[in-house]
């Protein structure tokens, strides 16, 4: 029943707070209001985003781990939390040419973590926008 | 890092309250009691069902969305909440020829939403029956 | 820093499922609909009620406990769960002369547990009706 | 066991999203940074605030309710959600002469709801700022 | 809309408490400290593990169920809870030749339940180690 | 509506993992087994304890805070987390003359934080032992 060598998944949750305003330059003012409702308010608003990161891999025979959580924390801190936490998404270079919807925020985070973690480690990223809304990007859709 | 065109998932949670009684006409009284235990009590009982709906699709290049949540809410309201919330599942036409177990309730909801959302949008439906029990139907099992 | 003899509180959560219909014989049909909305539907509906019981008392010097959880579980089972779980509140004698609102259900549970636990043990009872609604009765309001 | 006339409590949870920047004109730039850390970032950030409102009162003998939830929802919508949801707290008149910390936001909400609900109804207001931080104002501290 | 015969999933959550110490005989003392940090403390520490079990199968045409929860509870009790709950993982035979990381604990549980449930029933096992960490093993990785 | 000077409460949640064995030298082996059940197992077991600390005080007119969360975190780290996290409660001096029940653990934490925070700041401490059990100590019971 020694599980070394078989594949398992390790998931970890993080939190970040940020503000955003949903507004697309490709749309008229009316179309923006219709598409985004209250999220189009000119002064922006904010969320506590819950971030769930799932990595997969073989269980290491010596350490019994898929990945050390200290290493995952360092990558997520450097790539995501230091850049976006307590900031305004609209001002980040990643959102100069796309609206900072949570779909797009999720895709940006997926791209940053995939590159930093290396080939085949990142399984999915989930971003919880509110208690009742979440967005996901998965490996198989790349 | 513009994510437009790639696929992402949008999940949303709803709540509904309903009563049901588990009783199969195909089983004897004893077999009903054995299969359903307390859920076979003649007067019915109730649950707050948590409903999670996951839709998938390309991120729209203009709006940055997979699907507008206002549109999803309207579909779920019309197809599911107006029909089942604060009602008795046993009296609904969907349960005239099958027991209103949460497995079957989940399948009925999956079918209603799949039709209303159109080809390929609905990824999965999860129905939480209690804090510790849930049921799922997924696209790939259709 | 030996805490024996000082007072502490022990809280425990239980779950029960039941159906109810809100309808007051003291009100007209219209007034019933106005007061209870969807909860007045004739066929009843149901909830998973979350029940939180808080007991207080001196920490026993030998066992280091306020109350053994096995004892509390037995009392709650006998007084509340066996009577109401998977049942229809409207059919219980406690609701022959009062509407089974969750306010009243909370009061009924408080009274049953207060008697069974003995003088001064029960601090409060909280009944969670949905994710976003709860009701409480407390010792000081007796 | 008729509970009519005795006191009970009714609690209800709401959610709102807003952005704020913590900065006190009474403090130097350095003191602001020391007091508020990342919350002093010039571009603001945001939160999903969880709001819990607890009202107390006698259980009405006819309706079996402390307060109709439809009425509480209307008051909270008018006084709090329409004013602050999806907005920037720093721009609201309530925060022209005080920093929009969550302590102060909680106090402002308590004052608005107390006035609107009338004498003696509002027991406490809790504002959840993140999964791990919350703030409360209670009736007895008025 | 009769769903009998189509496939659905049934998930159920369990809780167990156990202590473990992370220490690999294949590593030096320094390497153990580096790999496991506080989890390498000689006296062990503990967790409330949340266990989520997902089983899949056709919905039975008579009972409307994927699997009776009473049967699943019995299997999980016999295979997992009676063996590990309120115990010390390091002393269990399953961890004589591998470190009791939660990755390995998850694999052990997956293997035990897969055997007891029979071919093709077990879809995945998730073990929640803390509020923010979880581990999963899935059928497709077998 | 400036709230400066009025009293408010600030609550914050922490997590720690520890193992304990419930065994009282004042009781026979049989009485220990009867009182503590599985918690009396000789090898100990563990929990993720959730710790909620509530402090009260006037809202500072300049900072708009009851207490800076950085200061509260430092006190809780120094007094509680560094001492008990990832340890064995039975080996701590605080539990040489009393059983490490969660009632007693809660009392010990209350005493440590009350001293460190200074007169009148600490309102209550809540320790969550499992999803369904919690213990509290409050200021008024001192």
What report would you give on this structure?
The structure is a homohexamer of 142-residue chains. Chain A is an alpha+beta fold. Chain A has a single domain (8-16, 39-138), classed as 6-pyruvoyl tetrahydropterin synthase/QueD (Tetrahydropterin Synthase, Chain A, 2-Layer Sandwich). Chain A is 28% helix and 32% strand. The first copy, chain A, has helices spanning 29-36, 69-84, 102-117, and strands spanning 7-20, 45-58, 87-88, 122-130, 133-138. A 5-stranded mixed sheet of chain A has the order 3-1-2-4-5. In chain A, α2 (69-84) packs across α3. The longest helix of chain A is centred in the middle third of the chain and has 16 residues, at 69-84. Chain A starts with 6 loop residues before the first strand and ends with a strand. The mean pLDDT of chain A is 90. Chains in contact: A-B, A-D, A-E, B-C, B-E, C-D, C-F, D-F, E-F. The interface between A and B is medium-sized, with 28 and 24 residues. β5 of chain C pairs antiparallel with β1 of chain D.
Tags for this model:
homohexamer; 142 residues; alpha+beta; Tetrahydropterin Synthase, Chain A; 3 helices
- The averaged pLDDT of chain A comes out at 90
**In the residues of chain A, how many domains can be counted?**
1
Instruction: Report the major sheet of chain A.
Output: 5 strands, mixed
Going by CATH, the homologous superfamily of chain A would be 6-pyruvoyl tetrahydropterin synthase/QueD
Helix content of chain A: 25-40%
The best one-word shape of chain A is: elongated
CATH class of chain A: Alpha Beta
Number of helices of chain A: 3
Structural class of chain A: alpha+beta
Outline the low-pLDDT stretches of chain A.
Answer: none
